[in-house]
Every structure is written in structure tokens, then in C-alpha cells.
Predict the structure.
Amino acid sequence: MTPKEFITGFLKKDHMELNYRRRTWGTIYGSNSTIELVSEIAKIFHKKDAARHRWVDFIQAEAVLLCRQEMSSRTTGSFMSSQLVKRDFFGPDAKHARNLKLTTIERPLLYNIIHGIISRADKEDGDTNEVCDGPDDLGGNNTDDMNKTCDASDDLRGNNDPVITGTCGTELADGVDEMEPEVSLNSCSGSLEDVMADYG
């Protein structure tokens, strides 16, 4: 029996004693050591000549699954009836409240992924305010075509607003109805709602 077969059997076998031994692996009490174990496995896929694309596919599938779970767990939609919109809906306090709810309750995982990618790109570019150069300046990654960003307007963000720079890419807008500006990502308004509305 190989070590991999032993570990797989330990995790999959439905035996009373084995269930007892791994009972805390996914809880707050045992999650740290479990994540440490998974991290060691991840290092194997980052070595030279490793099938890294298989690990990337796995992580991507897990991220998509978790984001979908976030979307299905929310109770309210992203759109409001025009009859319910009052004057204070456009005020900075209301906008800050919507952004805070979107980034901490409805879409925290998706927000953190986007924010982490853009923040990393800003640091690599040497400018924390804007990234408006072509993808070649960010290492030639094809996905950077969709992450091209521009400055958010100062009047659109409140104090301590969890706002990330707006997306200016054109590829994300393919297939999006031009009559629905709430969904389109071409507005380049800098609003976090504009960046993430396509997911709700």
C-alpha cells in the first residue's frame, strides 16, 4: 500500500474508528492542521515539471462552487423597482451601506478574489491608484485584459468604503444587453456594484 492509498483510504473509509479520528479535521479545532496538510500537497504541484494545470483546474472549480453558494444563499436581488427608489438612495451613506453589504455579507469571497488580484496588479505596476496600461505591462497574462482598471470617481465613494477600482475591460461585456446598464461592466464608474453586478 502506497502512502497516497493509505491517506485516501483513511479519508474515505466509512468506519466508526476512522470517523472518530477525523471528526475534527473540518472544524475550527482541527482546521488549521488540515489546511497545513493541504498546503503541503499544493507545494507538490508548484514544483518544476508538475501538472500544475490540474491543480489550477481543481482550485478554480472550488472557487466557482463557493461563489455560487454565496449567490444562492443571499435573500435579496441586485435590482430594485424604480417605485421603491427614493432620493436618499443616491446619497453617500446609502451607497456605503450597499457596498458594505455586498462585500461582507452577499459576496465576500468574490470581492476578496477580485480585490486581491487588482491589489497585486497595482503593486506590480508601482501605482496603487490605477492600472490602465495594456496586459503586457502586467506580465502578458491573457486574463489581465479583463482586469484593466481606472480611477474611481471621488464622489462615488464614501469614507472607508470597500470600493475597488472599476473594470474598464470590454471582454466582460460580451453578450450583455446594452439596455441594462446595471449589469454592464463598461460604465467604468469605479463602483464596486458595477464590478460585481454581473454575478447577481
In short: The longest strand covers residues 149-150. The chain has a mean pLDDT of 71.
